[in-house]
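TASK: fixed-backbone design
INPUT:
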């Protein structure tokens, strides 16, 4: 398991601009899925048609994201997918919000205010239960979070989740390395915020909130990775219906 992709290591101290964001997504795609290639983005003509339909210009960062990985559904199309260009729309709130991502049942949206469209990498807001709130300071950062989240919740058996018992809220930070994304709100509300990311080689972990019984989500590259993480963090893991997973001889992190 030596050499498995580690998101925290790949991100180092954070992402300072959209070029670094795309470099991270390329590395992440290679580490968790398959390398990106020239045919993995949408066509430029498709984006021009969308701009004509909406009567606006897409921010440079959003355009670059679609051109980079807009045809790689494993990176953006599971739990809260990025909208295909043909489904981009303007929400009427706040003087207009260009929405490019949706909660899977349409309960929340992510977007850029129309007044910010002139910026190359504008801030992103999310429609939470408390109303629209700041999400990420740049579209490119929001795209990094997107590919992490959609990979975490992708199909297959290598995912698990639990509510952390009281007293174990800080255990994840002790065991795993923090991914250098800024804290951001969960759309479901303050009780599940902020959202924190952690990793180890072959593991992605997301903790929703800081209080007792906050949710911890885990995806492993292999069953051994996943089982090791669930063994290391005591909890009522959903996949094993409250029983302890089989321990492994050597932890892969």
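OUTPUT:
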């Amino acid at each position: 398991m030596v050499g498995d992709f580690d998101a925290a290591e790949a991100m180092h101290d954070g992402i300072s601009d959209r070029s670094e964001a795309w470099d991270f997504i390329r590395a992440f795609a290679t580490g968790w899925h398959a390398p990106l290639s020239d045919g993995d983005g949408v066509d430029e003509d498709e984006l021009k048609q969308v701009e004509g339909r909406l009567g606006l210009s897409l921010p440079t960062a959003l355009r670059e994201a679609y051109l980079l990985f807009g045809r790689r559904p494993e990176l953006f199309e599971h739990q809260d997918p990025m909208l295909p260009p043909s489904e981009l729309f303007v929400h009427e709130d706040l003087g207009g919000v260009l929405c490019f991502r949706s909660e899977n049942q349409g309960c929340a949206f992510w977007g850029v205010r129309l007044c910010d469209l002139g910026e190359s990498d504008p801030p992103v807001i999310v429609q939470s239960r408390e109303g629209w709130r700041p999400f990420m300071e740049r579209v490119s950062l929001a795209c990094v979070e997107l590919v992490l989240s959609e990979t975490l919740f992708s199909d297959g058996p290598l995912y698990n989740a639990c509510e952390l018992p009281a007293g174990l809220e800080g255990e994840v930070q002790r065991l795993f390395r923090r991914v250098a994304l800024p804290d951001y709100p969960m759309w479901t509300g303050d009780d599940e915020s902020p959202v924190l990311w952690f990793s180890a080689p072959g593991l992605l972990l997301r903790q929703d909130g800081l209080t007792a019984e906050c949710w911890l989500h885990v995806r492993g590259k292999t069953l051994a990775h996943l089982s090791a993480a669930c063994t290391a963090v005591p909890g009522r893991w959903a996949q094993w219906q409250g029983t302890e997973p089989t321990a492994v001889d050597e932890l892969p992190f």
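COMMENT: The longest strand covers residues 97-102.
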